Amino acid sequence: MDFETLCKKVMDIDSKIRFAGMINDKGRLIGGGMKEGKKPLEDTKDDEMLFMELVLRTKMRREFDKQLGPVKFAMSCREKAVVMSFPLDENVMLVSADTGINFAKVPFKILKILGR
Questions:
Q1: Neighbouring C-beta atoms of residue 104, cutoff 10 Å
Q2: DSSP assignment, residue 38?
Q3: Per-residue model confidence as pLDDT tens for the chain (116 residues)
Q4: Four-CA torsion 107, 109, 114, 116, nearest 10 degrees
Q5: Smallest Cα–Cα separation from 55: which of 37, 73, 28?
Q6: Which domains occur in the chain, in start order?
Q7: What would you report as the CA-atom Rg of the chain, rounded to the nearest whole angstrom?
Q8: How many CB atoms neighbour CB 75 within 10 A?
Q9: Which residues have CB under 8 Å from 94's CB, separation 6+?
């Protein structure tokens, strides 16, 4: 499945999802993006920094894969958004959503779409 289709399927899970994008190991957006009609919460110039930081965190989490098993997803709840990341080989799917999203269900629906 191509990244655009994958990201579209993730965005269709819940109306509170604002962004679903595939980030490569260099911190570049290679598929997906902001949901139509939604305004970004950050400047476009900040996206690159956010993506690179995400890739770095994902690589650092792999240090504990042997002891704890691989990360399926990571989530942070911020004041204005919920941010989730899903490692996929060398890439990472980044999903952001409005704060009313169902933490207990949505990440697992995304994992199912990703075949994890």
A1: 7
A2: P
A3: 699 999 999 999 999 999 999 999 999 999 999 988 777 776 666 788 889 899 999 989 999 999 999 999 999 999 999 999 999 989 999 999 999 999 899 999 999 999 98
A4: 80
A5: 28
A6: 3-113 (3.30.450.30)
A7: 13
A8: 15
A9: 19, 20, 21, 22, 23, 51, 54, 83, 84, 85
Closest CA to 107 of 24, 2, 8, 14: 14
Structure tokens at 63: 């240090």
Q: d(Cα 11, Cα 22) in Å, to the nearest integer?
A: 12
Helix (H) or strand (E) holding 44: helix 44-61
Q: Which amino acid is at 47?
A: D
Residues making up the chain, counted from first to last: 116
Tokens found for residue 116: 């994890």
For residue 9, which amino acid is it? Answer: K
